Amino acid sequence: MAILNKIRSKSIFLIIIIALALFAFIFSSILDSGGFNADKQNRVASINGVNLDREDFATKVEAQTRRAGANSSTTRAVNAVWEQEVNRVLLEEQYEELGIQVGKDRTQELLKQALQNDVRFQDADGFFSEAKMQEFIATLKDSQNPGDYQSWLVFEESLRNQEKQEIYYNLVRAGVGATLKDGEVAYKLDNNTVDIQYVQMLYTSVPDEEAPVSKDEIQEYVNDHKDEFQTEETRSIRFVKFVEEASLEDENALKAELSKLRNEYTARNGATGVTETFAGFDKTEEIEDFLIDNSDVPFVDRWFFKKDLPSTNADTLFALGKGGVYGPYKDGRYMNLSRVVDVRKMPDSVKTSHILIDFQGAVTNTARGPIPSSATRSKEDAKKLADSLLSVLKRNKNKFEDLAKEFSTDKSNSDNGGDLDYQNPNLFAAGYRDFIVDNNEGTIGIAETNFGYHVINIVDQKNVQDVIKVATVVKEILPSDKTISNIYNTTQKFELAAAEGDFQTVATENGYAVRPVQRIRAMDETLPGEGAQRTVVQWAFEEDTNVGDIKRFATNDGYIVAQVTRRTPAGTERVEDVSLQVTPIIRNMKKAEIIKNKISGSTLSEIAQSQGTTVKTAGAVSMNAPTIAGAGNEPKVVGAAFGLKEGEVSSPIEGSRGVYVIEVVKVSEAPGLENYAAFAGQQAQKSRAAVSTKVLNALKEAADIEDNRATFY
């Protein structure tokens, strides 16, 4: 009992000890799981306190990437999903605040509108059937793939969100309008005009040296216009690119390899494993097979006009004659070995008409490419019909147009009597091409292609000239393993030397071009001239990457060695970054004062004479189109003109391109209207059309947005 009483007397201490132990356990668990920042580590963003979960965001990015196709990139998908999610969160806040909801009955109406043309949800009479839709939904619920029903729920939710959005925008639009006074102002801005005379004194007339701009003046201008010079967090880098490209040694090795192919050579047969002897390129009769075995590009069975070949090699190839071989020779990124297979003369343009008779097994041309023909006649029957038509036409060629309309299955031209107009023969299928170049103008005959049998009339042939068939062994000039290894070693040496010394100095000493990139943003993806280089941008924005840090990155065609040159925090831009933008503004302000001080005279003629220029005229100038003939867009000058009376001369006006003194010659006011409702309506319509964009921009500007995308992508 004494022990129990002693324990009871100390119970408060036991409770405290146990509580401390529990707290220590919980605190340790928090630290092990990432601490109090665990939530932050798993959220892509926070928008007015609403978190975008990393896993959910990643799922949506994956879906967006699939929708966008192969030409998209992860970064573009991330940015697209980001815009969607920010807009969704901000609009949902508005829906909740305004009590905008879409009930079950309205959802059913929306589903009906969206699905009424889908045959899966139509009854026997072709009308939308709610019963069929409910049956379809029940099937999805029972599906072994839970994603099927989930996709349906997402579809329903998207319809509800579209409806909420439309309701919300309509509410905003209802509060946007224009008064009759607004309509009157719009009417006058469009139709009131002035005729002016003016003297233009260009800023360029004052040398830049007479209007120097200091760094302090730029800073003062930025301070006075802070709203115009806000920037997000940026990085500046410079980099050297090392390209894995073939060396002269690699080119010579490939040239030697192709040279060996000209003569008889031995090679291992991949199918049999036996070493065989093959005829060289100069003598082989199996041209197509030779190219299949030895070329990156297969044989192209076509006739080449001289203009179709690269100008650097065309004359040489045409001078070879049949059987002549040229090369190996370099052509851009390739090493070629060419042989003239055949020579002939051929027109470069032929006018023909045809009657196409297709058959089972033939193909039909469509916008998506050739597809199997729907013909039911046999090939034999098609040939008989073609022969029959040819017999008729040989007796009376004038029936060609009527027969084409009646029998041709090429409906793209049958109504025109099968007329194909003038075409390059090479644009036709081989059988058609050979017929129209092997025969003379006026010939009618039959040719077979994969489209069917063609009854052809050669109407005209133009510009007969020499053509050749050329077989070319094409091999891409690639860097050897030795060259790739040398480039890697060179890159590594530069990286180490630049880290120990000065990046620019080391690059210059080795003859490497340093390429600067200014003001990269956290979610940028590309580097100028290098395409997508997201890993470089991510590295530049890492918390432990400092100014001066250097890193090497592998690219598709080599390496980039980059150095961070500046870290710029979000806020007002630095003087150095805006100097090129602000300096001309301040300089022109100074030049304007210099010009004003030189102006003398009270009339335009006197002022023009004192400035060594002339008086110019501009008529029918309006406020809505503030362009002055001979001066360009000058809204300040035009605005000042509308504040003057006829005959009144202005004070000097600082415009975009110079200083102006103007005189209003004539004021033409548009006749008043009894009612300005039409113009008021136009203004209201313009304002309402911009509602969605302006509302979202306003919501984003007012929102508290924490953007962590760059941490994850």
Automatic annotation (TrEMBL):
Q: Which protein family is named in the record? A: Belongs to the PpiD chaperone family.
Q: Is Cytoplasm one of the keywords? A: no
List, alphabetically, the InterPro entries matched: PPIase_dom_sf (IPR046357), PPIase_PpiC (IPR000297), PpiD_chaperone (IPR052029), Trigger_fact/SurA_dom_sf (IPR027304)
Residue ranges of every copy of the PpiC domain listed in the record: 347-460
What's the protein called, per UniProt?
Periplasmic chaperone PpiD
> Lineage from the top down?
Bacteria, Pseudomonadati, Bacteroidota, Flavobacteriia, Flavobacteriales
Gene Ontology molecular function terms on file: peptidyl-prolyl cis-trans isomerase activity
- Organism of origin is Dokdonia genika
State which residue ranges cross the membrane. Answer: 12-31
